[in-house]
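Quick start: read one record
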Amino acid sequence: MLSTPLYDITPFSTLDYPDHLAAIFWFGGCNMRCDYCYNKDVVLGTGHIGTKEALAFLKQRIGLLDAVVLSGGEATLYNDITTFARQIKTLGFKIKLDTNGTACDIIQELLEQSLIDYIALDYKAPETKFTRITHHKTFQTFQKTLTLLIGSNLPFEVRTTLHTDLLDEYDINAIIEDLHVKGYNGIYYIQNFFDTHQTIGEMASPTKPFDRRKVCPLLHVKFRH
């Protein structure tokens, strides 16, 4: 069992969990290698902060923070995530999970035990481009997670990072149509690529334009900068 799963801790954030003051626990490692990913050090790195240290940090912030965001990397790769989440909840904090949705069984377990309060699910790309962008063949597992969340009562959001050299208006509309058919009625967030010059694929700023007027109106779509 990995005893030091966390790569880093952000002590305070007002942006990562809607309407909550939260700390962010960054889990080292990921099963994807998305070219546009700017968390290169986290994804390619390993953890060096243990759960005991993380829980001690939280105990000092009881009454100061509302929640914890489990992010990464990919938090669901940690094989004792359920126990860790339960320990966090015992301290009185809400939990938001950022996930690529490739660990459906683990997410289902967290839901069944009421250990998660909110999920941000990354819809990386439509099936035709999923493996090319993520370098991982997990689209069908991701779809199982999406269906699971739509059928649950848990608040969650779906989001896609948009680099227009990788995804165009037709790809975004394919995602929107899939979400609509499956019955998703939440907000679909499109996040603009954040150019740090240190992404996994060493991607530069997009060269192609994106015409928002071509976005299918089947869902409530919001663009994040």
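The CA atoms of residues 153 and 204 lie 39 Å apart.
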